[in-house]
Amino acid sequence: MELVDIPAVLAIQAASPEAAQWTAGDYERACQGLMYGTVAEGRGVVGGFLVGRRVSEELEILNLAVRRECRRQGIATELLADTLESGRTWRAKKVFLEVRESNASAIAFYSHYGFATTGRRPHYYRRPAEDALVLARPLFDEAA
Question: How many CA atoms lie within 13 A of 10 on its CB side?
């Protein structure tokens, strides 16, 4: 992710109410290397993005969204695979994330790649208020 990608990332985020709604400054931190940020581009258009961070020996996925008209084309899979590979490079042992409990498509997506529910965070989300499910998987598993 580079600074020039931020307007496109913000547009994708705005059209994705299930994604965390961050500011441009939040994404600037990823561009500065304070977090992990990657985008999927095709024909000069940002089709999706993923932001994560290293937490001790773990990789946390913080935000992932794909442009609505680019969904079901493997972009989220590509972003996830690149991120997991980066986590392996960092020697992370586990990857985890939070997801709205009502986001059935995200839960199914992550389950397909070996993530399992390991916990719940009551009232984690606002607008609307909702619990988060914590999903995790070992990072050394080559199934992804």
Answer: 13
pTM: 0.89
User: Along the 144 residues of the chain, how does pLDDT read in single tens digits?
Assistant: 999 999 999 999 999 988 888 999 999 999 998 899 999 998 788 999 999 999 889 999 999 999 988 888 899 999 999 999 999 998 999 999 999 999 999 999 999 999 999 999 999 988 788 999 999 999 874 444
Measured in degrees and rounded to the nearest 5, phi and psi for residue 100 equal -55, 135
Single-letter residue type at 38: T
Total structural domains within the chain: 1
Residue 94 is assigned to a structural domain of this protein: yes
Supply the CATH number for residue 124's domain.
3.40.630.30
Is residue 144 domain-resident? no
